[in-house]
Amino acid sequence: MNRDNMRVFLIFTMVTVLFYPAAYTFAGDYIVGEGDVLSITVYEHDDMSTVARVTYAGTISVPLIGQVVVKDMTVSQIAKKLTGLFSDGYIVDPQVNIFIKEYRSRKAIILGQVNTPGIYNLREQTSLLELISQAGGMTKLACSKAIIKRKTQAEDDSSESVIKINLKQLVEEGENNLNIQIKDGDSIYIPKNDVYYVTGEIKKPDAYEYEESSSVIKAITMAGGFTAKASKTAIQIIRKIQGKEEVLADVKMDEPILPEDVIVVPESFF
What we know:
Layout: H1 3-18, E1 37-42, E2 50-53, E3 59-62, E4 66-69, H2 75-87, E5 96-102, E6 107-112, E7 118-121, H3 128-134, E8 145-151, E9 160-166, H4 167-172, E10 187-190, E11 195-200, E12 206-209, H5 216-222, E13 236-241, E14 244-248, E15 262-265
Parallel strand pairs: 6-10, 11-15
Antiparallel strand pairs: 1-2, 1-5, 3-4, 6-7, 8-9, 8-10, 11-12, 13-14, 13-15
Helix pairs in contact: 1-3
């Protein structure tokens, strides 16, 4: 992904971050799990309100009631259960509201060409772009695709499905249907883009995105052109062939280049 495309991506993801939900997010159909933190409020009964973390056993601690099993229950189901428990001799017509304060039970891993790869907690709904943004955005060497490995739904099936997302179509062409929701256990990988390198007496030595039509003259142009000291007739290409570096000397300007080539523009001594 080139620099202009990267700017578009960063702007897009910054806008996405601005519209993240607040720290307390209602999620009626969200199934809670170990580590999730729930904010429980009872209308007009502040002494009954509490913040509770779901234990490894799938329970939470609630004032007066004690330990309540919430394993495999949605937020709405938990609210209904607590309403019934509070009604049983504690509060007349209780109104219980529950919010997810921290999502800790659902996680995904993102690796490759992102600035902060690692494991991230997922909200009730976390899109691909939101997760990439949480990972600090993509590096300048990132490829314009994402590979998502997802476990199948069947409990007795350990196989994975592979989803490939074209990030260029998503970000530049606005195909929002590609901004899929990330699920618990997903593994996202952003590969490194094919690049070539230009160094020596040129104005902007750097790594550049490789394209099928890339040539020496195109590489020099992308790198800002020659400096005043450049030798335009002694350009070299350092290329790996069968694992060994070889130097192609005095290459022509229309010479095609390959991924990982290093184009060297020496200084002229005349």
